[in-house]
Amino acid sequence: MTRPTIDQATLDELKETAGPEFVVELVDTFLAEAPLMLDDLRSALAERDAARFRRAAHSLKSNSHTFGALTLAAMARELELTGLEPAAAAGGAPLAALADEYSRVAAALAELRDA
Question: Lower CB density within 10 Å: C or N end of the chain?
Answer without folding.
Answer: N
